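Example protein
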Amino acid sequence: APRLYYLWMTVDVGNAEVESNETNNILAGNAITIIRDVDLVPTVVSTVASANRGNSISIASTVANNGTTVTAAYSEAQYHLSTSATSNTKTLLLGSSYISGLAAGTSRVVTTTATIPANLAPRLYYLWMTVDVGNAEVESNETNNILAGNAITIIRDVDLVATAVSTAATANIGTNLSIASTVTNSGTMATAANSSVQYHLSTSATSNTKTLLLGSSYISGLAAGTSRVATTTATIPANLAPRLYYLWMTVDVGNAEVESNETNNVLVGNAIAVQ
Protein backbone atom coordinates (compact mmCIF):
# COMPACT_ATOMS: atom_id res chain seq x y z
CA ALA A 1 0.00 0.00 0.00
CA PRO A 2 1.33 3.50 -0.78
CA ARG A 3 2.24 5.16 2.53
CA LEU A 4 5.18 6.10 4.79
CA TYR A 5 7.46 3.20 5.77
CA TYR A 6 10.74 2.88 7.70
CA LEU A 7 13.82 0.91 6.60
CA TRP A 8 15.29 -1.59 9.08
CA MET A 9 18.38 -3.83 8.95
CA THR A 10 19.04 -7.01 10.94
CA VAL A 11 22.43 -8.83 10.97
CA ASP A 12 23.18 -12.46 11.86
CA VAL A 13 19.62 -13.51 11.16
CA GLY A 14 19.02 -16.94 12.73
CA ASN A 15 22.04 -16.44 15.03
CA ALA A 16 24.45 -18.44 12.82
CA GLU A 17 27.22 -16.66 14.65
CA VAL A 18 27.24 -17.05 18.44
CA GLU A 19 28.18 -13.55 19.48
CA SER A 20 29.44 -11.93 22.65
CA ASN A 21 26.63 -9.34 22.24
CA GLU A 22 23.35 -10.33 20.60
CA THR A 23 21.54 -7.05 21.43
CA ASN A 24 23.01 -4.80 18.74
CA ASN A 25 22.01 -6.65 15.58
CA ILE A 26 19.14 -4.37 14.56
CA LEU A 27 19.31 -0.82 13.16
CA ALA A 28 16.63 1.58 11.96
CA GLY A 29 17.39 3.53 8.78
CA ASN A 30 15.52 6.34 7.09
CA ALA A 31 11.84 6.80 6.33
CA ILE A 32 10.66 6.02 2.81
CA THR A 33 7.35 6.98 1.24
CA ILE A 34 6.00 4.41 -1.18
CA ILE A 35 3.93 6.14 -3.83
CA ARG A 36 1.91 5.46 -6.90
CA ASP A 37 2.82 7.91 -9.67
CA VAL A 38 -0.35 9.96 -9.24
CA ASP A 39 -0.21 13.76 -9.27
CA LEU A 40 -3.50 15.61 -8.78
CA VAL A 41 -3.25 19.26 -9.84
CA PRO A 42 -5.98 21.94 -9.75
CA THR A 43 -5.60 23.73 -13.07
CA VAL A 44 -8.67 25.99 -13.23
CA VAL A 45 -11.11 27.41 -10.69
CA SER A 46 -13.45 30.33 -11.29
CA THR A 47 -16.80 31.81 -10.41
CA VAL A 48 -18.77 35.04 -10.86
CA ALA A 49 -17.15 38.42 -10.14
CA SER A 50 -19.81 39.43 -7.61
CA ALA A 51 -22.63 37.79 -5.68
CA ASN A 52 -25.32 38.76 -3.21
CA ARG A 53 -25.30 37.30 0.28
CA GLY A 54 -27.75 34.42 0.55
CA ASN A 55 -27.56 33.62 -3.17
CA SER A 56 -26.08 30.57 -4.91
CA ILE A 57 -23.03 30.70 -7.16
CA SER A 58 -21.64 28.25 -9.68
CA ILE A 59 -17.97 27.25 -9.36
CA ALA A 60 -16.20 25.80 -12.42
CA SER A 61 -13.04 23.80 -11.79
CA THR A 62 -10.66 21.46 -13.54
CA VAL A 63 -8.42 18.84 -11.92
CA ALA A 64 -5.63 17.10 -13.86
CA ASN A 65 -3.73 13.90 -13.09
CA ASN A 66 -0.19 14.66 -14.21
CA GLY A 67 1.09 11.26 -13.09
CA THR A 68 1.46 8.00 -15.02
CA THR A 69 -0.98 5.96 -12.91
CA VAL A 70 -4.76 6.18 -12.53
CA THR A 71 -6.01 7.57 -9.21
CA ALA A 72 -7.22 4.96 -6.72
CA ALA A 73 -8.49 6.93 -3.72
CA TYR A 74 -11.75 8.87 -3.39
CA SER A 75 -10.20 12.34 -3.20
CA GLU A 76 -11.96 15.46 -1.99
CA ALA A 77 -11.59 18.88 -3.65
CA GLN A 78 -12.63 21.88 -1.53
CA TYR A 79 -13.53 25.43 -2.52
CA HIS A 80 -12.90 28.30 -0.13
CA LEU A 81 -13.24 32.05 0.05
CA SER A 82 -10.27 33.89 1.51
CA THR A 83 -9.65 37.55 2.23
CA SER A 84 -6.15 37.10 0.78
CA ALA A 85 -5.11 36.76 -2.86
CA THR A 86 -1.78 35.20 -1.84
CA SER A 87 -2.60 32.98 1.14
CA ASN A 88 -5.27 30.30 1.37
CA THR A 89 -6.52 31.35 4.80
CA LYS A 90 -9.84 29.55 4.22
CA THR A 91 -12.14 32.22 5.60
CA LEU A 92 -15.17 30.25 4.42
CA LEU A 93 -15.62 26.73 3.06
CA LEU A 94 -18.04 27.00 0.14
CA GLY A 95 -18.32 23.36 -0.83
CA SER A 96 -16.64 20.19 -2.08
CA SER A 97 -16.46 17.79 -5.01
CA TYR A 98 -14.90 14.35 -5.28
CA ILE A 99 -12.58 12.60 -7.74
CA SER A 100 -11.79 8.93 -8.26
CA GLY A 101 -10.56 6.85 -11.18
CA LEU A 102 -8.90 9.77 -12.97
CA ALA A 103 -6.68 8.28 -15.66
CA ALA A 104 -3.05 9.33 -16.10
CA GLY A 105 -2.63 12.44 -18.24
CA THR A 106 -6.33 13.34 -18.20
CA SER A 107 -8.44 16.07 -16.60
CA ARG A 108 -11.89 16.31 -15.09
CA VAL A 109 -14.12 19.38 -15.32
CA VAL A 110 -16.47 19.86 -12.38
CA THR A 111 -19.23 22.40 -11.75
CA THR A 112 -20.18 22.90 -8.11
CA THR A 113 -23.03 25.00 -6.71
CA ALA A 114 -22.42 26.82 -3.43
CA THR A 115 -24.51 29.20 -1.32
CA ILE A 116 -23.10 32.45 0.04
CA PRO A 117 -24.14 32.67 3.71
CA ALA A 118 -26.58 35.47 4.46
CA ASN A 119 -24.36 36.70 7.32
CA LEU A 120 -21.06 36.83 5.41
CA ALA A 121 -19.42 40.25 5.67
CA PRO A 122 -19.75 42.14 2.37
CA ARG A 123 -16.27 42.77 0.93
CA LEU A 124 -13.78 41.53 -1.67
CA TYR A 125 -12.81 37.86 -1.36
CA TYR A 126 -10.71 35.45 -3.41
CA LEU A 127 -11.71 31.96 -4.50
CA TRP A 128 -9.32 29.11 -3.68
CA MET A 129 -9.36 25.41 -4.51
CA THR A 130 -7.55 22.57 -2.74
CA VAL A 131 -7.42 19.04 -4.19
CA ASP A 132 -6.81 15.77 -2.36
CA VAL A 133 -7.83 17.25 0.97
CA GLY A 134 -6.59 15.00 3.77
CA ASN A 135 -4.06 13.33 1.44
CA ALA A 136 -6.27 10.35 0.63
CA GLU A 137 -4.12 9.86 -2.49
CA VAL A 138 -0.37 9.45 -1.86
CA GLU A 139 1.03 11.53 -4.70
CA SER A 140 4.38 11.87 -6.39
CA ASN A 141 4.07 15.65 -5.85
CA GLU A 142 2.16 17.04 -2.86
CA THR A 143 3.15 20.69 -3.41
CA ASN A 144 0.79 21.58 -6.26
CA ASN A 145 -2.62 20.87 -4.72
CA ILE A 146 -3.74 24.47 -4.15
CA LEU A 147 -4.86 27.06 -6.69
CA ALA A 148 -6.12 30.65 -6.39
CA GLY A 149 -9.01 31.64 -8.64
CA ASN A 150 -10.64 34.99 -9.30
CA ALA A 151 -11.70 37.76 -6.96
CA ILE A 152 -15.37 37.90 -5.98
CA THR A 153 -17.13 40.82 -4.33
CA ILE A 154 -19.78 39.74 -1.85
CA ILE A 155 -22.53 42.32 -1.64
CA ARG A 156 -25.81 42.90 0.09
CA ASP A 157 -28.54 43.75 -2.45
CA VAL A 158 -28.58 47.38 -1.41
CA ASP A 159 -28.60 50.07 -4.08
CA LEU A 160 -28.56 53.67 -2.89
CA VAL A 161 -29.58 55.98 -5.69
CA ALA A 162 -29.38 59.77 -5.72
CA THR A 163 -32.81 60.52 -7.20
CA ALA A 164 -33.37 64.24 -6.59
CA VAL A 165 -31.47 67.29 -5.37
CA SER A 166 -32.37 70.97 -5.67
CA THR A 167 -31.97 74.37 -4.08
CA ALA A 168 -32.69 78.03 -4.81
CA ALA A 169 -31.79 79.39 -8.23
CA THR A 170 -29.88 82.31 -6.69
CA ALA A 171 -28.07 82.90 -3.42
CA ASN A 172 -26.00 85.64 -1.84
CA ILE A 173 -22.56 84.95 -0.42
CA GLY A 174 -22.59 84.66 3.36
CA THR A 175 -26.23 83.51 3.49
CA ASN A 176 -27.88 80.17 4.17
CA LEU A 177 -29.15 77.82 1.51
CA SER A 178 -31.80 75.08 1.87
CA ILE A 179 -31.07 71.88 -0.06
CA ALA A 180 -33.83 69.35 -0.72
CA SER A 181 -32.74 65.82 -1.63
CA THR A 182 -34.15 62.35 -2.10
CA VAL A 183 -32.23 59.08 -1.81
CA THR A 184 -33.80 55.76 -2.82
CA ASN A 185 -32.82 52.21 -1.93
CA SER A 186 -33.52 50.32 -5.15
CA GLY A 187 -32.23 47.03 -3.73
CA THR A 188 -34.10 44.21 -2.01
CA MET A 189 -32.42 44.61 1.41
CA ALA A 190 -32.39 47.39 3.99
CA THR A 191 -29.23 49.45 4.33
CA ALA A 192 -26.96 48.53 7.23
CA ALA A 193 -24.17 51.13 7.21
CA ASN A 194 -24.36 54.76 8.28
CA SER A 195 -23.84 56.24 4.82
CA SER A 196 -22.79 59.82 4.16
CA VAL A 197 -24.56 62.03 1.61
CA GLN A 198 -22.61 65.10 0.49
CA TYR A 199 -23.70 68.24 -1.35
CA HIS A 200 -21.23 70.18 -3.47
CA LEU A 201 -21.09 73.18 -5.71
CA SER A 202 -19.24 72.72 -8.97
CA THR A 203 -18.44 75.05 -11.82
CA SER A 204 -19.36 72.25 -14.21
CA ALA A 205 -22.78 70.86 -15.12
CA THR A 206 -21.25 67.65 -16.46
CA SER A 207 -18.41 66.85 -14.06
CA ASN A 208 -18.62 66.63 -10.26
CA THR A 209 -15.42 68.55 -9.62
CA LYS A 210 -16.53 69.41 -6.07
CA THR A 211 -15.45 73.04 -6.04
CA LEU A 212 -17.06 73.53 -2.63
CA LEU A 213 -18.48 71.09 -0.07
CA LEU A 214 -21.71 72.63 1.20
CA GLY A 215 -22.72 70.02 3.77
CA SER A 216 -23.67 66.43 4.54
CA SER A 217 -26.49 64.24 5.75
CA TYR A 218 -26.57 60.58 6.74
CA ILE A 219 -28.65 57.51 5.92
CA SER A 220 -29.07 54.22 7.78
CA GLY A 221 -31.78 51.60 7.96
CA LEU A 222 -33.39 52.61 4.65
CA ALA A 223 -35.78 49.78 3.76
CA ALA A 224 -35.75 48.13 0.36
CA GLY A 225 -37.75 50.01 -2.26
CA THR A 226 -38.20 53.12 -0.12
CA SER A 227 -36.89 56.69 -0.28
CA ARG A 228 -35.73 59.25 2.24
CA VAL A 229 -36.38 62.95 1.71
CA ALA A 230 -34.01 65.28 3.53
CA THR A 231 -33.64 69.01 3.88
CA THR A 232 -30.14 70.25 4.64
CA THR A 233 -29.12 73.81 5.47
CA ALA A 234 -25.79 75.03 4.14
CA THR A 235 -23.99 78.37 4.26
CA ILE A 236 -22.51 80.04 1.18
CA PRO A 237 -19.02 81.17 2.25
CA ALA A 238 -18.49 84.92 2.23
CA ASN A 239 -15.32 84.52 0.15
CA LEU A 240 -16.86 82.35 -2.59
CA ALA A 241 -16.39 83.90 -6.04
CA PRO A 242 -19.73 85.13 -7.44
CA ARG A 243 -20.64 83.20 -10.58
CA LEU A 244 -22.90 80.40 -11.85
CA TYR A 245 -22.48 77.08 -10.05
CA TYR A 246 -24.18 73.69 -10.23
CA LEU A 247 -25.44 71.71 -7.26
CA TRP A 248 -24.26 68.08 -7.01
CA MET A 249 -25.14 65.28 -4.61
CA THR A 250 -23.11 62.13 -3.88
CA VAL A 251 -24.55 59.28 -1.80
CA ASP A 252 -22.65 56.63 0.15
CA VAL A 253 -19.45 58.69 0.19
CA GLY A 254 -16.52 56.43 1.06
CA ASN A 255 -18.51 53.31 0.08
CA ALA A 256 -19.57 52.47 3.61
CA GLU A 257 -22.36 50.39 2.06
CA VAL A 258 -21.24 47.67 -0.37
CA GLU A 259 -23.89 48.01 -3.07
CA SER A 260 -25.15 45.92 -5.95
CA ASN A 261 -24.69 49.00 -8.16
CA GLU A 262 -22.03 51.59 -7.41
CA THR A 263 -22.54 53.63 -10.61
CA ASN A 264 -25.66 55.62 -9.67
CA ASN A 265 -24.51 57.45 -6.55
CA VAL A 266 -23.94 60.88 -8.10
CA LEU A 267 -26.57 63.34 -9.33
CA VAL A 268 -26.42 66.89 -10.68
CA GLY A 269 -29.17 69.26 -9.58
CA ASN A 270 -30.03 72.78 -10.66
CA ALA A 271 -27.83 75.73 -11.47
CA ILE A 272 -27.41 78.37 -8.78
CA ALA A 273 -26.22 81.92 -9.38
CA VAL A 274 -24.09 83.02 -6.43
CA GLN A 275 -23.90 86.79 -6.15
User: Anything to note?
Assistant: The two ends are 90 Å apart (CA to CA).
